[in-house]
Every structure is written in structure tokens, then in C-alpha cells.
Amino acid sequence: MTLNKLVFKNITRRRGRFIFTLLGIVIGMASFVTFMALGGSLKSEIERESAALGANLVVTPKGSCAYEQVSILTGEQLPTTITAEEVATIRSIDGMQAIPYLAERSVIDNRPVSVMGILPAETKEFKGWQIAAGNYFPTEHAEGAVLGSILAEQFELQPGAEIRVRGTMIPVLGVLEETGGKDDLTVFLTMPIAQQLYEQEGLVSYVAVRVAKIDEVDLYANKIEEEVNLGVVTDQQMLSSVLGIVGTVNITLQLIAAVALLAAAFGIVNTMMTATYERKREIGILQAMGATRFNLFRLFLVESAIYGFLGGLGGAFLGLAGSFYAAPYISQNAATSFVKGSQQSIDPLVLLWAVLLSTLIAMLSGLYPAWKAAKLSPVEAISNA
Predict the structure, then answer these.
(1) Which of 234, 257, 292 is the last residue of a domain?
(2) Beta-carbon contacts of residue 4 (< 8 Å; ≥ 6 apart)
(3) Pick from 275, 214, 230: which is nearest to 88 by CA?
(4) In the predicted model, is pLDDT for residue 87 greater than 60?
(5) Distances (CA, A) of 14 to 74, 201, 278, 292, 308
(6) Which helix (H) or strand (E) holds 232?
(7) Domain count, the chain
(8) Which helix (H) or strand (E) holds 338?
(9) Cα angle at 229 between 225 and 233, to 5 degrees?
(10) In Å, what is the CA distance from 156 to each residue of 149, 188, 215, 341?
């Protein structure tokens, strides 16, 4: 009987044990792939959103913490305490362009969406937007909404449709071309209309600032702080702060994935050790027929590897599906909302590495049982069977 036939016979001998051991590996690897897929691209997602903001400085309410900085990048609702007078003072400083934003939330078809009050002409120039369908705001006080491309697609909204914002029906004027950032998932209103709907007359959430001389960013930050009693952070400071907070999410996901893999590894050890004790007589007979210790060691190691390969294959695809369906539930707050974007850009190599890692872990888990089986002598194996 060949090695392949022996392996197949031994694995399928106890079908119940085979299925449950395999399920343990599948679930463990699925957890690993899910959490790694959700957390693996957080850093690149944050850097992309920071670049899409297009600002060298961000002015926030005094005392704002890093959580508010996360919300700026994700489009979450923010405290609105910066006054029109403070915005005018910031905009009066020479050598920089300052764009105020009012960040709020609304609901479309019972699903939360970001709403942003903007100065239409200045924001379009600042962001470099292009219109994909319909028209842009004709005036700074126009009643209507311009939608991000992905949001319009998700809710099947086109120019001429209407959406409800704070109990008021707002016509859709146009749809932006895809930007690759949070703007694609946002409803944009003119600043006066947004302030009126959300009862925030004369107030904004934050101000994005682009300076003329990049090497004088700190100088401009000091000027703003001297003129108004507000918080000012550079784009690099905000990026570092946000990465520090959201990085804890990634670490947590990785730790959970490691525990799941450890549990799967012990399942393989238990299964193979049990098989070693149950098959002592078979081991003795194989040795009597000329099988070497290396042959026996390889036999048990290959069985472990098959568990790992099949479990990794099933876990990789189950984990991929899990990350897709779990992301909307995990990303309901600012600290974890970046996983919504990161799980959409899973590298196919992640699946390949998951299968290879599962196989490797299974083989490492099978080393001790394989060694135990190989060191049995023919007489000992048969007499203790």
C-alpha cells in the first residue's frame, strides 16, 4: 500500500473526528483571515483619507482629542463650536487657504450617512472635484444636494431624485466623480442650508487649511493659535495621532486571530496523538513489513499537513466572506470605521499565505505525534496494541 493510500485511509477512518478537527481548523483560519483582512490595510486607508483631505493644517475646537481627529478623516459627526467670527479671522491670515466644514449625520433607507456642509465653489477648487452626472451647486446658497459616487450607487440615486435630511426633502442636483476617499460616501449641502437644517447657524465643525509655503506650516499654526482660541494640528500630527489610536484596533484583531490559530493547533495535536495510540498495532505491522522510522514520521506529518491545507483552504474563503459581512457592523464608530474601506481591498496573496500558514502550523502541530509514532519499536507497538 502506498503512502497516499495509507494517508487517505487513516484520515477517513474516523470520519466524525476528521470532520470536527477540520472544522476547528477552518473556524480558526477563518477568524485569522477575517481579522487580518479587516485590520491589515488600516494604515494605508488612513493615509489615503489624510491625503484626500488636502490640508496642511486642521483647526478644531479647543480641547479636541484624537477621537475627533479620527472623525474628521472618516466623516463622522463632530462637535460644532467654531463660530463664523473665528472662521473669518482664520481666513484673513495671508498666505493660506482656509475651508470650513460642518460635519453631521443623516439616514437614507434606515442606513446612516455622512452629511457635510460646504462652501461650494471654494471646496470644489480645494478638493479638485469633477461632476459625473447632473450639475454642481449653482450658487453658494443653493437648495439641493450633491452626492458622492458610491453613495449615489448604493441608494440608486440620480440627479432629480430627492432625499430626506432632518425631515426636509432635498433634491439631488448632481453626483461627483469617484475620489477614492470618504467623499464618495457623503451627502454635500451648501453651508447655509446645512446650518439651517441642523440648527447650527453661524457654526462649523472644523477648518481645513492649505498653506502657500509648506516649510512654514508651524509658523502658520502659531499664527492661527495667536488669533483664535482653537486647536491646530498639522496633517502629519493628525496622521500620527490617528494611526496611534486605530493601531490598537489592528493589534486587538491580530491577538484574537492568534488565539484562534492556537486553538486550532491544539486540536490537531489532540487528533494526531489519539491516532498514534489507536494505531499502535498498525505501526508495529508496518515496521515488521520494512517501514522505517522516517516512513512513519512522514506518514503522520503528511496527515497533519492535509488537515492544515484543507482547513486553510476552507478558512481562507470563509474568512473572506466573514470580513465582507462583518465590516459594516464593526465600522459603526469612528475608531473602527476605516475597516470598512480596508476590507474591500484584500490582496489575493492574503488567501495564499493563509493556506500556507495553516499547512505550516498543522505540520508543526503534528511533529510531536509523528515523533511519538516513529520511535515505537515493532515489539512495543504490537504488544501494547
Answers:
(1) 234
(2) none
(3) 230
(4) yes
(5) 51, 72, 11, 25, 17
(6) strand 231-234
(7) 2
(8) helix 338-342
(9) 50
(10) 10, 17, 45, 20
- CB 373, CB 276: distance < 8 Å: yes
Q: Looking up cell 492568534, which residue turns up?
A: 258
Burial 341-377 (b: 16+ CB within 10 A, else e): bbbeebeeebbeebbebbbebbbebbeebbebbbebe
Judge whether 126 and 210 are in contact, CB under 8 Å. Answer: yes
13-69: pLDDT as tens digits: 667 777 777 788 888 888 777 777 666 556 666 666 666 676 778 888 876 665 666
Mean pLDDT along residues 198-224: 89
Last residue of a domain, one of 171, 203, 234: 234
Give the number of other Cβ atoms within 10 Å of residue 384's Cβ. 11
* Amino acid residing at 127: K
Rounded to 10 deg, the angle between the 235-278 and 293-330 helix axes is 140
DSSP label at residue 177: P
- For the record, the C-alpha cell of 214 comes out as 509648506
Please name which of 7, 2, 11 lies closest in space to residue 271, comparing C-alpha atoms. 11
133 burial via Cβ count (<10 Å: 0-12, 13-18, 19+) = middle
The one-letter amino acid code at 110 reads N
Residue 189 predicted with pLDDT over 90 = yes
Q: What is the pLDDT of residues 324-379, one digit of tens each?
A: 666 555 544 444 444 444 444 556 777 787 788 888 888 888 888 778 777 766 65
The domain of 299 spans: 3-44+243-383
